[in-house]
Amino acid sequence: MNRLLLGASSAVLALAAALPATAQISTETQATALQDVVVTAQRRAESAQKVGLALTVVSGEDLDKRNIQTVNDLENTVPSLEVDSQLGGGQPQFRIRGVGLTDYAANNTSTVGVYVDEVAYPYGVMTQGLLFDIARIEVLRGPQGTLYGRNTTGGAVSVITSAPTEQLQAGITASYGSYDAAKLEGYLSGPLTETLSARLAVAAETGGAWQYHRDTGEELGAKDTKAARLRLNWRPTAQTDVDLNLHYSKDDSDGRGLRLVTQPFTSGGGRVYPVDSAHRITGWGISPYFAQLIGVSSDAKPFRDNEGKGASLRLNHDLGWATLTAIGSYEAFDRNELNDWDATASNEAGTYFFNDIETVSQEVRLASPTGGRLQWMGGLYHATEDVDGGFYSDFSEAKSLGFWMSTTYNQKVETTGVFGNIDYRLTDRLTLVGGLRYEDETRELNDFKTEILAPTPALRANTSKAQSMGEWTGKIGAEYAFNDDVLAYANVSRGVKSGGFTTYNSGLPEQLDPFKFEELIAYEAGLRSSFFDRRLQLNAAVYYYDYRDQQLQGVLYTQTGRVGRMINVPKSHIQGAELELRWRPLDSLTVTQSIGYKYGEYDEFYFVNATATEAAKDPVTGEYNTIVYSDRAGERLPFPRWDYKGSVAYSRQIGGWGFEAETNYSYRDEKFSTSSNSIIDSFWLVNANLTLSPPTADYSFGLYVNNLTNAYSEESRNRFISAATGSPNAPRTWGVRLSYRY
């Protein structure tokens, strides 16, 4: 590991030293220079190219061009990032550089922190429906905690919404496309008084049902979402800035249908379903008892009925010697979601989630003025979280089961963190960086209950559990500026991620034991550089992760079946590299490219051998007579090795009309699905856009095609009871777009 880092660091430094110093940008080439993006990744406004971190910025203008409609779609733009909605549900799972948690329950926090206007959204299901009227998205790779409110091992996704403006502005964008998909977004922004400005943004989406039932032909996949955000900015004095953010979202969309993959499925009623071959095919069904239990009609199909609302208040006050920032927030999310995990009309794996989530957080920071030799920041973070609910399961037609189950619980979390960060410019070129954090957390799982509801009621589990964590984390590093446009950095950081509880259907005492927090020590070296009058940006990073107690979605086997459980892997490691390029060789041409490579192995892991255990299953009774364990050390971690993302945009004036053609593309390597014990194939995704702007007009017309090659791909797989299923991505879609700006 030391040789790897030493060699990579030497290569980065040698590259930087060999490159010529960049002269001050000339007037003649300003038009072709790449825009200097200002970010707040380190809690201060600065150029993205001056940040000694592995950082990718996605502008608000790029969201529509790259078909980024939710945070899930960011994986097609950001290197080393994957976002999957496990089992087709409404809860995304984030993974950066192979670090991520896979869990379909709603009560465990993500290894990747998601923030909206500096407010943490700790549970993945809360992050849907956020991406409208966005200024930019900053994605940081690697452990975070000395600058952010929460502590994470994977990284952070920071969404910054558009702020109120001092002049009157308005805009509206409408689109219509395949499968009657329609989308509308709009905003109105401007001053209300000399010191108060406001911005109201709204969004709505309908249609797009691209799947169909294999038996009836009924459509599935229509969207029905709406959202609104009001931001008020008050500047009573030149030193004081107050920002109020009120927001609401509602999602009444259809759920995602699954497909049968890898093996035929024989239902409990004896019907044999072959492996699905058509891209859009799926299936579902609901029993009369289950429909009555969850309060829906007898012909209900997978759906979401989710509602989110919240408010945050941020104060910035310049004290002269420091800036005081205080943020208070309240977020509430109500989840109601029906999924059919056997993907057939047979009632063998119907699941209905119901959760009420409330989070209240406060953060206070003091930061030194920018520009000095010493820059520092210190803060205090406190949050309380309440997750109430559970899920119902329909196993009424499953072989060896034949019942309906209920799992309910209440989880309470209290977190307090103290953190600080220092940058000291030792010389004009060399800066030393250090950060430290202490986090105290308690988690309580109260009144966890699993019971069979019918046909014969029976209590399977009834318990309460508690867990606590008190951990120090931090970072040390150095940054060296070869000149104004070439920055090299190296750092070592330690991050931790909270433990938690497995809240699945349970009848086994071992399944209910809490899993412990995970820790990650990251070694990283990188380069951020600009050349040729800042027309070319080249950023690179190499890293090695020493991973302890990695959290993993595993399984427990009994004689009669298998159940899921969150487990800890004692020791593993990940290593990799990333390269990002942005180039504007001409006024009319912009090219972006990125490539990421990562590889990891278990170093200490003795666990169930699913392949051998399945092979030993009695073919007549279906019982697991022999449960096989094996030493898994040396096995590859289940994530894609390679990912490649890029775009090419060409624009020019033709007869006074503005013309822009853009295509973006991404590749994700194959990966192993532990839950289905099978390989998810690699895939390419290509999108294309054409935009025309009439002369002297404030509006534009657009044409778009998503998944241009109509490639088939899956985001996740699972084997639930007996059905092996995959969650497919959408086929080729197209549409038209009209935008107006005032």
**CATH second-level architecture:** Beta Barrel
Q: Considering DSSP H and I runs of 4 or more, what fraction of the residues is helical?
A: under 10%
CATH class: Mainly Beta
* End-to-end separation: 55 Å
* The CATH topology: Maltoporin, Chain A
Low-confidence stretches: 1-31
- Give the CATH H-level superfamily: TonB-dependent receptor, beta-barrel domain
Going by helix content, strand content and strand pairing, the class is: mainly beta
| Spatial extent as radius of gyration | 26 Å
As a percent range, the share of strand residues is over 45%
Domain module count: 1
Number of helices: 4
Overall spatial form: globular
Average pLDDT, to the nearest integer? Answer: 88
Strand tally: 45
Characterize the biggest β-sheet.
22 strands, antiparallel, barrel
